[in-house]
TrEMBL record:
The keyword Hydrolase applies. It comes from the Bacteria. It comes from Sphingobacterium hotanense. Gene3D superfamilies: 1.50.10.10. Pfam families: Glyco_hydro_88. Keywords: Hydrolase. GO terms for molecular function: hydrolase activity. This is Glycoside hydrolase family 88 protein. The keyword Hydrolase applies.
Length: 397
């Protein structure tokens, strides 16, 4: 699809105008609304258009904005407030043309991150009946059908990272696959999602700590890869957050009688048992998970928000025992004391968010402790605020 810059700016201006009136109406509500809604409205105040989430500079089908859109859609489902639906749908509607072509999406990049916003298309198509959303679903699915794989069938994270499996990618693609399987009534895609999850667990699990490494290189040739195991060297908090969310979300559309559902539940239960060992006395988790209080390490917002969501949802769905609610309670208490703070104007701000981290590519991304703790830190990163909103909604249940 070819769109001009002029069209992009026109769409952006239109969205701003359309959002302004309902947002002012929403902001006029009483201040005693639930915390999840207060945080969401603080985000909308900072970022009047959804593409601006994650401090975005342009209209883009990005995984981070997709995560934010998912949180706002869940908020719409909970509150029935059309303002939140419009915030999401205007963004998606502006990105996808009537042929289902997605603005700036390049399927030949085979980038799993691009699959993440597609999770919303199932709900949007069901609600709006816009055929372009159904067409876009198929375009994303076509990418996954052709996605390069490791010798044992796991998706590469993207084309320029050959033979690399990242925990991030399990969140981006696996719940999409189970949703697609339900949508099309094609059980083979349940199998594909489970193959990805269970295969990644085998290669990324560390039996000594009970944690999961950020990535695995099947070829064992990357500078960051252990030459024997192919695993990256550190336990990056957010990558395990992505993983935990992938595990609880992939079960949403997986039939209860699927014979491998119990395998996923076992991974969830084992992880839930292990993680509290790394929770500090303030209830929080750190950027590099197994090295709390080491110099330059810090209590990082996104890992805590993701764990809040995953623990609370797992308890609510009966995946783990009710006593794990206290882990989520501790995280929330720590966030409110240390990282989630209110401005004088009443806006909530979530601080100490790791802006981005990865492996290889440009820069010295070697997966070491020093690398992760020296990456950029900022406030109100949607990779932290979105799971916080979803986590707070789960806690409200």
């Amino acid at each position: 699809m070819t769109l001009t810059i002029k069209r992009e700016l026109l769409i952006s201006s239109l969205i701003t105008c359309l959002l302004l009136i309902p947002f002012l109406q929403v902001s006029a509500q009483k201040s005693n609304m639930p915390l999840y809604e207060q945080v969401a409205q603080s985000e909308m105040k900072r970022f009047p258009e959804l593409w601006q989430l994650d401090h975005g500079k342009r209209l883009y089908f990005a995984y981070s904005q997709g995560l934010g859109a998912l949180a706002f859609y869940k908020l719409y489902e909970k509150t029935k407030n059309e303002v939140y639906f419009n915030y999401v749908e205007m963004w998606m509607d502006s990105l996808i043309d009537n042929k289902g072509e997605i603005y700036l999406y390049k399927p030949e990049d085979f980038h799993l991150d691009f699959i993440n916003p597609g999770k919303l298309l199932f709900s949007l198509y069901e609600k709006t009946k816009k055929e372009k959303y159904a067409l876009a679903i198929e375009k994303l699915m076509d990418q996954l059908k052709k996605q390069p794989r490791t010798p044992d069938g796991l998706f590469w994270h993207k084309d320029i990272y050959p033979n690399q499996v990242w925990l991030d990618g399990l969140y981006m693609a696996s719940p999409f696959l189970t949703s697609y399987a339900k949508y099309k009534n094609e059980p083979k895609y349940y199998d594909e999602a489970l193959n990805q999850i269970l295969g990644a667990a085998k290669h990324l699990y560390d039996p000594k700590t009970g944690l999961y490494y950020h990535a695995w290189d099947a070829a064992k040739v990357q500078p960051w890869a252990n030459p024997v195991t192919g695993q990256s060297p550190s336990f990056w908090g957010r990558s395990i957050g992505w993983w935990f969310m992938a595990l609880v979300d992939v079960l949403d559309d997986l039939p209860n009688d699927n014979p491998r559902r119990e395998d996923v539940l076992k991974i969830i239960r084992d992880l839930a048992e292990v993680l509290p060992r790394y929770q500090d006395d303030e209830g929080l988790f750190w950027q590099v998970l197994d090295k709390p209080k080491v110099d330059k390490n810090y209590q990082e917002a996104s890992v805590n928000s993701m764990f809040l969501y995953a623990f609370a949802k797992a308890v609510n769905r009966g995946y783990i025992a009710p006593e794990y609610r206290k882990v989520a309670d501790g995280i929330l208490s720590g966030l409110q004391k240390k990282l989630l703070l209110k401005d004088k104007d009443g806006s909530w701000n979530l601080h100490q968010c790791n802006a981005v981290a990865g492996l290889g590519g440009s820069g010295n991304r070697d997966g070491s402790f020093d690398y992760y703790v020296n990456e950029r830190i900022r406030s109100n990163d949607i990779k932290a605020t979105a799971p916080l909103i979803m986590g707070l909604m789960e806690m409200d249940k």
